Amino acid sequence: MASDIKVSVKDDALRAAVDRVRLGLPLGGRMRPLWERIGRIGKTSTQLRFRTQVDPSGKPWVKSWRALNEGGQTMSLSRRLRNSIAYEARETGVAWGTNVAYAAQRNFGGVIRAKAGPFLSIPVTPEARRAGSPRNFGELHVAQSIKGQFMLVDKNGVTQYLLRAKVTQPAREFLGVNEADSKEIVDTSERYYEEQWR
């Protein structure tokens, strides 16, 4: 799994539980099955954050403009990011995350700037989202609001795209381990240890 994000877990209880298993395995015992179980826990917990809309520390995500104005959930329109969460277990450890290019920006937040022109075009209607780019939409013209905001409107005067030089996206953390995950990982490690000595 290629990943641009690395979140390390520094939890003494987790480390102690895994070390107990690693050091207490019978001769020829393998750690990879335990890492597989831990990877499934991490993947499932991460994917559930897209449903609960809460980060690992328990803080609710800031709702997106689309979720506030049209309903639905933040970061769940296409479900691409949520469905891309995967894990990779080896004999020496496990990692879970995503290879989606924009994942780090969604997880940590940041500023998005226009690359190919002076403005980002942000679709604000379902029709504009389906079209993707304003080039695919048809007849649009530039208008300016009373507050000085530029937008692209259709022939009926309906705003289809907002034009912005940059957009600041808040952090919506989905990667990490919370207390419930930590407890489940410790319990899973203890069960695995007991299974190896039966």
Radius of gyration: 22 Å
Main beta sheet strand tally, sense and closure? 4 strands, antiparallel
Order of helices and strands: HHHHEEHEEHEEEEH
Query: What structural class results from the helix and strand content?
Result: alpha+beta
* Strand proportion: 15-25%
Helical percentage = 25-40%
Order of strands across the widest beta sheet?
4-7-6-5
**Ends distance:** 34 Å
Uncertain spans: none
Number of domains: 2
Number of strands: 8
- Give the overall average pLDDT: 89
Query: How many DSSP H or I helices?
Result: 7
List keywords for this structure.
single chain, 198 residues, alpha+beta, 7 helices, elongated
Please render the helix and strand layout as text:
Blueprint: H1 12-24, H2 32-52, H3 65-70, H4 80-83, E1 86-89, E2 94-97, H5 103-108, E3 110-113, E4 120-123, H6 126-131, E5 141-144, E6 150-153, E7 159-164, E8 166-169, H7 179-196
InterPro entries: Phage_virion_morphogenesis (IPR006522)
Protein name: Phage virion morphogenesis protein
